Amino acid sequence: MFKGNKDVSPSDSMSQSSMPTKRTAMKSRAPSILSGDLVLTGSIVSEGEVQLDGSVDGDIRAGSLIIGEDAVVTGEVYAETVVIRGKVSGSVRARQVQLAATARIEGDIVHAALSVESGAFFDGHCRHSTDPLAEKSGPSATTSAPKMDSRPPAPPANKPAAVDQPPLAANKSSL
């Protein structure tokens, strides 16, 4: 009754229709949620949205990042957009930065747009940039000028060390 291609077995046609498409076509729009009991040492890299409620000791790169009230980040943050409600110890680079009233930032912020709610704590430098993600950060980004040493210079090696002498006022009696 039905005429079909006899070269294809039913199992072959079934496996072709149930085969998943490429992974890039199946990208999920759901955020990656890192819960409050998570403690991570290392870097996080994501093109999508990341919601962090735990603790990260390392750098975070994400398309969109939400740092929850109890979250702690020790490292650099790079994102298109970032909402900070918790604590960040390190620099933040993002096109859009929002500091909530519960935010505590100890580090520099480079941004294209910045909003700060009343009550947010920020200790660092803030700089506007048209493209904060394209700029390099860290010591390699600055020109290599010699650093000044705050210690006093050491005495020359060929001169003997100074001998303690009494002050001139004590020698006045010998006049």
From TrEMBL:
Q: Where is the composition biased (Low complexity)?
A: 10-20
Q: Which Pfam families match?
A: Bactofilin (PF04519)
Query: Which InterPro entries has this protein been placed in?
Result: BacA/B (IPR007607)
Region described as Disordered = 1-29, 130-175
Q: Which family does it belong to?
A: Belongs to the bactofilin family.
State the protein's name: Protein CcmA, bactofilin family
